[in-house]
Amino acid sequence: SSELIQPLSVSVALGQTAKITCGAANIGMKNVHWYQHKSGQAPVLVIYRSRQRPAGIPERFSGSNSGNVATLTIIEAQAGDEAVYYCQVWDYTTDYVFGSGTEVTVL
Amino acid sequence: EVRLVESGGNFVQPGGSLRLSCTASGFTFSDYWMHWVRQGPGKGLEWVANIKEDGRETYYGDSVKGRFTISRDNAWHSLYLDIDSLKVEDTAVYFCAAGQHFADCLDFWGRGTPVTVSS
């Protein structure tokens, strides 16, 4: 099974660092992708293949992946970063799998 | 500018049928795998189906196999999802997405089109 476990919510003070985790057995052996989804808008790819940043995504967004946990890190958090963040992997038994989503609130 | 615009969402009774469409612009449509992903009310994202660049391969999530059919028309830069035997649990916003490689990320997404299945 490739169920991806994410915390339901993460709160971060303005200008501080948020870390969003995505857990699964041996996820460090897979490519993990992260999407930012604001209500009513199109989801946006913010990190692909665990640590690569698409063109146009600020350097404040970074990713890491090792062992059983992948992490999306947002430094210098801004109000505009408030969204639900989803991790995603591809697995040959379950195809494209998304995590349950983490709502990020900037205080 | 990359754009994916979905249409066709509607209110449908259980057992009914629907065709969703997605029109693409701003990228070479025929170079991308195309996907449908849905989000039920209060739920997360669920991958539904995808189709190869040339349309010759299709794959489906377990919950929709046998009822959903994905297709594309590269000449019209369009993606389709035909849904039969609709169930209440198919109620969701349906997103169209594009990915350059199989088994990889979804590079671009649309805003989605809502489907409500209810009697």
Give the SSE layout:
The complex is a heterodimer of chains A (107) and B (119).
Chain A (H helix, E strand, L loop, with lengths): L8 E4 L5 E6 L9 E5 L6 E4 L13 E6 L2 E6 L8 E9 L3 E4 L3 E5 L1
Parallel strand pairs in A: 1-9
Antiparallel strand pairs in A: 2-6, 3-4, 3-7, 5-6, 7-8, 7-9
Chain B lengths: L2 E5 L3 E2 L5 E8 L7 E7 L5 E7 L6 E3 L7 E6 L4 E6 L8 E8 L8 E2 L3 E5 L2
Parallel strand pairs in B: 2-11
Antiparallel strand pairs in B: 1-3, 3-8, 4-5, 4-9, 5-6, 7-8, 9-10, 9-11
Can you offer a commentary on this structure?
Chain A is mostly beta strands and 107 residues long. Chain A contains no helices and nine strands. Chain A has strands at 9-12, 18-23, 33-37, 44-47, 61-66, 69-74, 83-91, 95-98, 102-106. In chain A, strands 1, 3, 4, 7, 8 and 9 form a six-stranded mixed beta sheet that branches. In chain A, strands 2-6-5 form a three-stranded antiparallel beta sheet, with no helix packed on it. Chain A is globular and about 40 Å long. The mean pLDDT of chain A is 95. Chain B is an all-beta fold and 119 residues long. In chain B, the strands form two sheets. In chain B, strands 2, 4, 5, 6, 9, 10 and 11 form a seven-stranded mixed beta sheet that branches. Chain B starts with a strand and ends with a strand. At the A-B interface, strand 3, strand 7 and strand 8 of A face strand 5 and strand 10 of B.
